[in-house]
Amino acid sequence: MTEKKITVGIIQQQNTGDIADNKKRLKQHIEQCAAKGAQLVVLQELHNSLYFCQTESTDSFDLAESIPGESTEFYSRIAGELHIVLVTSLFERRAAGLYHNTAVVFDTDGSIAGKYRKMHIPDDPAYYEKFYFTPGDLGFTPIKTSIGTLGVLVCWDQWYPEAARLMALQRADMLIYPTAIGWESSDTPQEQKRQQDAWIISQRGHAVANGLPVVAVNRVGHEPDPSGQTNGIQFWGHSFVCGPQGEILAAAPDDSEWCEVVEIDLTRSENVRRWWPFLRDRRIDSYNDILRRFID
């Protein structure tokens, strides 16, 4: 079996309201990862700005951009100059009144390898994403790049085993989750731990069930609520990479920025799937009810 390894750069950043500064620092961090040998660099969800979904404001639609557009030109140049594959997360303006939460992947020559529009859209206190984002219509389709096939999903998608499975069934080499998740100020320390543990366990479970590595990149730091109705969100960081048996390969701190490069051995996926042939033993003849909302 031919050995295949990929080095992945993880950038966990604390953002401010200064978009130009956020992008400048992201560029510096991407360059640091590339200097350490990263072939693939993954950014957090909606990385250009603050997480604007804490409130419902039509003014926030001014943050949206066309794809291709200014941000894709900016990140395309970086990917091409550094000869890396780059996973970005942008607020897409598809048309007036039609917006998506969209991951754009650039190949090593700076070209757009593909994009994925977030399919599962949450609507919770301080996470009012249904106000802003139309559910994706590109399906759960992996993106082929010069270094491998990437199963890119976004944040709330990470709770759904169906999304991970569909990416795996289409030959994704790994699952990637740009993320923005954190604690609300009234959560007790015990509740905070339960939430974070559930987030980690769910994604490690996707790795195990599909025999694939997982890369989860979260934002970090406190972001205030512009309305003043809550005390804002403390994004919990803890970006991590795990292997195809859910083994943790690297994990970021909860409370500070992190820029690291992690080596992923894709050969392990082949071996793990030989040991644990879950795809072989699936009872595809008996799963029709999964298409129902609920079984009464």
List keywords for this structure.
N-carbamoylputrescine amidase activity; 25% helix; six-stranded mixed β-sheet; single chain; C-N_Hydrolase_sf; C-N_Hydrolase; Nitrilase/N-carbamoyl-D-aminoacid amidohydrolase; CN hydrolase domain-containing protein; alpha/beta; 296 residues; 6 helices; hydrolase
Structural commentary:
- This is CN hydrolase domain-containing protein.
- It holds the Pfam family CN_hydrolase.
- The protein has 296 residues and is an alpha/beta fold.
- It is built from six helices and 15 strands.
- The strands form three sheets. Strands 5-4-3-2-1-15 form a six-stranded mixed sheet. Strands 6-7-8-10-13-14 form a six-stranded mixed sheet, with helices on one face.
- Helix 3 (161-169) runs parallel beside helix 4 (189-210).
- The chain starts with a strand and ends in a 15-residue tail after the last helix.
- The model has no long low-confidence stretch (mean pLDDT 97).
